[in-house]
Design goal:
The structure is a single chain. This protein is mainly α and 436 residues long. Strands 1-3-2 form a 3-stranded antiparallel sheet, with helices on one face. The two termini are 38 Å apart. About 5% of the residues have low confidence.
Length: 436
């Protein structure tokens, strides 16, 4: 019997050794998962920042393109206005030349009219053998005298009228020329301003085009970097899923070993119980024989008085009391439920709490809630510090109901492990988690 117990103990120690080795390997994988998760978080943050940067660049690019389009529109409009101004300058110059020609013609006509008038006056006064009064008085009749007076008046009036007309025409042409010269000067000033403004806008548009080219290069560079981040993120996520699959496989193997160990322990406890019961039965039989032997001795000695032996009986009772959970245990349990399943349904929160208490009940894990939660390499929120922050902030209050239900014995899964469900682990899926 002792030899068999030694073999069982050796098998138990070997099983514990295998479990410890498996646990160490699982812890190493969990560390890799945690590190990969940190890299994924960093890549997602970098992607988000890069996306914001590209969005800002795109807005700047659109603004530049709008400004360039507006500038090109202004260039087109100013170019058309400048062409109109140049045409107006040329037309005004043509008008000035025409006016100058008309002025010369008017001056020549006025000079010719003045010359003809002088000739007529000279003919009437200087070349005549008599003066005008004699010429009138010698008229044979009054009508003839009046005719001669009217003739002289008509000639003089015509000459004065023509001279006035030529003078007015000349003055009008001079004023028109002056106005045209002023207009041309204004048009040339406008032409200079339009040319300067056009050059300024063209320079500004050229600068914007250069900046736009640089901005497009920045966008392309950022997009290339974003593509590399996305590729790295995809690789890390695939690696994380592979690690999750390996971790689940290790956990499953460990769970099988734990089950075998617990079954072996159960068998040993049952054997030990049977052994104790057998020894108790044998002890009872020996005591009964001794009592009967003592009675025979007393009868054979013929003792007058009979003595009544009293024997005290003791019974070993095993009590399986369940210690009431302390306030600290409730706080720890509700906080880890919050960190792992705060965004899940009540059923999902209850399942996470059930895994914790299943481990407490298992001989392969620490036998306290705090021991299970703080066991190395088991819960990511503990390793990342998020659990400590949530505990300090009292965030577990959001999951107290589920924690208290679990402590009261309400368990909805009999699993020892759970992971985020990526579709690579077989098990019971509740919400975002798979339990196995």
């Amino acid at each position: 019997m002792n030899h068999k117990r030694k073999i069982c103990s050796l098998a138990f120690l070997l099983s514990v050794s295998v479990l410890c080795s498996s646990q160490a390997h699982a812890t190493a994988i969990q560390d890799q998962i945690d590190n990969t998760g940190k890299k994924i978080d960093e890549l997602e943050q970098a992607l988000d920042q890069q996306g914001q940067k590209i969005s800002a660049y795109e807005k700047e690019k659109q603004s530049m393109e709008s400004e360039i389009a507006s500038g090109q529109e202004k260039i087109g409009r100013l170019s058309a206005e400048l062409d109109d101004t140049k045409a107006a300058v040329i037309h005004t110059q043509d008008e000035i030349e025409k006016t100058q020609k008309a002025l010369r013609q008017s001056q020549a006509d006025s000079k010719e009219q003045y010359s003809q008038m002088k000739q007529r006056i000279r003919f009437l006064y200087e070349n005549s053998s008599m003066d005008m009064l004699t010429y009138i008085l010698e008229a044979g009749s009054m009508p003839e005298a009046l005719r001669r007076v009217n003739y002289f008046q008509a000639v003089m009036s015509y000459d004065r009228q023509k001279l006035d007309e030529f003078k007015a025409t000349t003055n009008k042409i001079k004023q028109a020329k002056k106005d045209l010269v002023t207009k041309k000067a204004e048009l040339e000033t406008l032409e200079d301003k339009q040319t300067q403004k056009l050059a300024e806008i063209d320079t500004a548009v050229s600068d914007l085009k250069n900046k736009l080219g640089s901005k497009i290069a920045q966008i392309q560079s950022s997009q290339e970097l974003q593509a590399r981040y996305e590729q790295d993120l995809q690789r890390q996520k695939q690696y994380e899923q592979e690690l999750e699959r390996q971790k689940a496989e290790e956990d499953r193997k460990r769970a099988e070993e734990i089950k075998k160990q617990e079954e072996e322990l159960k068998r040993e406890r049952e054997e030990e119980q049977r052994r104790k019961e057998l020894e108790a039965q044998q002890q009872k039989e020996r005591e009964e024989k001794a009592r009967q032997e003592q009675e025979r001795r007393q009868q054979s000695s013929g003792a007058a008085d009979s003595t009544k032996g009293s024997s005290g009986s003791s019974s070993n009772t095993d009590s399986a009391g369940s210690a009431a959970a302390s306030a600290g245990d409730l706080e720890l349990l509700s906080t880890i439920i919050y960190c792992e399943a705060g965004n899940q349904s009540y059923e999902g929160q209850l399942a996470v709490g059930s895994v914790i208490m299943n481990r407490v009940a298992s001989s392969s894990f620490p036998n306290s809630i705090s021991g299970v939660i703080y066991q190395s390499g088991q819960f990511s929120p503990v390793a990342s510090g998020r659990f400590a922050h949530a505990l300090a902030a009292g965030l577990g209050r959001h999951c107290v109901s589920a924690a208290q239900a679990v402590l009261n014995g309400n368990r909805n899964v009999d699993c020892l492990y759970f992971r985020i469900d990526h579709g690579v682990i077989d098990g019971l899926v509740i919400g975002d988690h798979v339990f196995y």
